[in-house]
């Protein structure tokens, strides 16, 4: 054996997996969370391959690496892992980590609500965990400052024609477009067709838009594409979307940071008011609730803070090892 022995707790939020890495990583250097993210990316990326890729994971596996927080108020720090690298924010992971922190005693359980402060690469995210009879339940979190980066844009996409879209930031940058204009339906079209269209949009937007963030250039990149049902004006009925991020990875949940970005754009375009709660539905029919709680200036942008609520569940625990002669076991992906 190589000496690798990595322990994880397995969860999912609305069908989207989360592999929480609890033990077995080497020391992670860096004074800040972004420095830790750079260190892991540059020095320990083989372990991401080991845990996210086959045969231990799969193309759409998602991970959370627990690290020592650098923020003085944080209860824990986390780095997010996926098939392409390391994201800056992940709402479905925060929802799962809220339950995990309470259940593991990282934060003392207080009924009816226990607050868990999680340092993510995008900043401090505060999660509120429902607790009843000592058991954790649904979790909501208050987003980092979210904003509409650019709205009412259009771009020519080969094989699809002109596509109208917006760009929102909800802890990561997303391009948002209605699937209907692509001849697709987020409820009925095949996942393969939706992913193909999203990837084409991603390639075009990355080539034409320069991103910037008020606090850090480490956050200034397009993370994903969200194809929606086109129902952007506030309604009591759920609005559906599919998020395709990283290297054509598909989120099974409504996407916490993506929902936040959608709300930020809807506020900027006058499609929803502060305090109104919308339901967002994923391809698995799972639901996140999202409510704007604050509107303020943030650098050159009008920003909002959005409270997103959902539920995560446990699926098991794992101990992963690696044999010396297992070349394939280092990790591979079939596309």
The span between the termini is 29 Å
Number of separate strands: 17
**CATH superfamily membership of the largest domain, which one?**
Diaminopimelate Epimerase, Chain A, domain 1
The secondary-structure element order is EEHHEEHEEEEEEHEEEHEEEE
**CATH level 1 name of the largest domain:** Alpha Beta
**How is the largest sheet built, in terms of strand order?**
8-9-10-11-12-14-15-16
- Helix-strand makeup class: alpha+beta
Helix content: 10-25%
CATH topology annotation of the largest domain: Diaminopimelate Epimerase, Chain A, domain 1
Work out the count of structural domains: 2
What is the radius of gyration computed over CA atoms, rounded to a whole number of angstroms? 19 Å
Mean model confidence by pLDDT: 96
In percent terms, what proportion of residues is strand? 35-45%
- Tally of alpha and pi helices: 5
What's the structural blueprint in terms of helices and strands?
Layout: E1 5-13, E2 16-23, H1 33-43, H2 45-52, E3 63-67, E4 76-81, H3 91-103, E5 113-120, E6 123-132, E7 135-142, E8 146-157, E9 161-169, E10 173-178, H4 191-208, E11 222-228, E12 239-245, E13 249-250, H5 256-268, E14 277-281, E15 287-298, E16 301-310, E17 312-321
Parallel strand pairs: 2-3, 4-5, 10-11, 12-14
Antiparallel strand pairs: 1-2, 1-17, 3-4, 5-6, 6-7, 7-16, 8-9, 8-16, 9-10, 11-12, 12-13, 14-15, 15-16
């Amino acid at each position: 054996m190589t000496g690798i022995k990595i322990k994880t707790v397995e969860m999912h939020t609305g069908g989207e997996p989360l592999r929480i890495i609890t033990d077995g990583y080497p020391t992670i250097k860096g004074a800040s969370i972004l420095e830790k993210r750079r260190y892991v990316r540059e020095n320990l990326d083989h372990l991401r391959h080991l845990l996210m890729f086959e045969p231990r994971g799969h193309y759409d596996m998602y991970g959370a690496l627990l690290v020592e927080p650098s923020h003085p108020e944080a209860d824990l720090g986390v780095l997010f892992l996926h098939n392409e690298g390391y994201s800056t924010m992940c709402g479905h992971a925060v929802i799962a980590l809220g339950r995990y922190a309470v259940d593991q005693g990282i934060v003392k359980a207080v009924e009816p609500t226990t607050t868990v402060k999680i340092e993510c690469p995008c900043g401090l995210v505060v999660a509120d965990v429902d607790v009843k009879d000592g058991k954790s339940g649904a979790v909501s979190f208050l987003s980092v400052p979210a904003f509409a980066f650019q709205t009412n844009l259009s771009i020519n996409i080969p094989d699809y024609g002109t596509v109208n879209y917006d760009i929102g930031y909800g802890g990561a940058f997303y391009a948002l477009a209605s699937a209907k204009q692509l001849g697709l339906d987020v409820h009925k079209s095949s996942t393969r067709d939706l992913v193909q269209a999203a990837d084409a949009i991603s390639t075009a937007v990355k080539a034409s838009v320069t991103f910037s963030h008020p606090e850090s250039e480490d956050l200034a990149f397009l993370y994903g594409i969200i194809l929606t049902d086109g129902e952007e004006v506030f309604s009591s009925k759920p609005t559906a979307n599919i998020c395709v991020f990283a290297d054509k990875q598909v989120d099974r949940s409504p996407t916490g940071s993506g929902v936040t970005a959608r709300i930020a754009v809807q506020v900027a375009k006058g499609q929803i008011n502060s305090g109104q709660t919308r339901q967002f539905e994923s391809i698995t029919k799972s639901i996140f609730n999202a409510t704007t709680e604050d509107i303020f200036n943030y650098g050159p942008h009008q920003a909002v803070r959005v409270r997103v609520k959902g539920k995560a569940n446990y699926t098991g625990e794992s101990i992963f090892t690696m044999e010396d002669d297992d070349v394939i076991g280092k990790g591979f992906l079939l596309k």
